[in-house]
Amino acid sequence: MSVIRLLLPAQGFAEISLKPEELEKQGIVVITTEPNPTEPMNFAAMDIVLIDGDAALQDNLALIDQIKAIAPSSKFMVLLRHSSAHAVTYMQAGVTGLLAALPDAVKLAEIIRKIVQGHYYLDQDIAQLLAMRQIKKQLDPFISLSSREFDVFCLLAEGCSLQTIATQLAISSKTVSNCQTQIKLKLALENREDIKKFANCHGLIIDNSV
């Protein structure tokens, strides 16, 4: 069994709790790296990087770009514990593994090997969510929304701020605000809580609290 080198960006980029010794039994060597503003991190020897998706999106995307520039063959997986809002953005950035939770060491090692071999891995809940959004956007009542309005709707339901949505969709905050107004009018919703509940009822977010 060949050894795979897994990089965990250290605190400041991600805080991911797992037991390195358990992964090492499965042939996965865990390496943590402290960010140093004066010296670039050496990623050249890494096979795969596990990133905490709850950390700042732009920091994570910058980290991915930095690693890809140094080690183009490196693979990436992201842990999305609390929100799947940026799932598509991460995949567009080259991430091929999306986890909703950390499985046990044996299962995680299996997933890591699959990704390193060039395969995609999407947690079942995330895969179902992404598929559901593609289907629902073409059906009532969402057929009344434009494609952009639907994207904004999903991100609003995930709890993203207007500025975060603007950055992710590469549009202005004013455009996001206008979309929000149209969404409320077209779907007869009054506030963010209504949007969240409506999205949850239609299976468009992963949220067990509503």
TrEMBL record:
Keywords (A to Z) from UniProt: DNA-binding, Transcription, Transcription regulation
Molecular function per GO: DNA binding
Family annotation (InterPro entries): CheY-like_superfamily, Sig_transdc_resp-reg_C-effctor, Tscrpt_reg_LuxR_C, WalR-like, WH-like_DNA-bd_sf
SMART domains, per the entry: HTH_LUXR
GO biological process, alphabetically ordered: regulation of DNA-templated transcription
Pfam families: GerE (PF00196)
Domain HTH luxR-type: 138-203
Gene3D superfamilies hit by this protein: 3.40.50.2300, Winged helix-like DNA-binding domain superfamily/Winged helix DNA-binding domain
SUPFAM superfamilies tied to this protein: C-terminal effector domain of the bipartite response regulators, CheY-like
Domain of life: Bacteria
PANTHER family: NITRATE_NITRITE RESPONSE REGULATOR PROTEIN NARP, TWO-COMPONENT RESPONSE REGULATOR
Protein's name in the database: HTH luxR-type domain-containing protein
Organism of origin: Methylomonas methanica
Upper taxonomic lineage: Bacteria, Pseudomonadati, Pseudomonadota, Gammaproteobacteria, Methylococcales
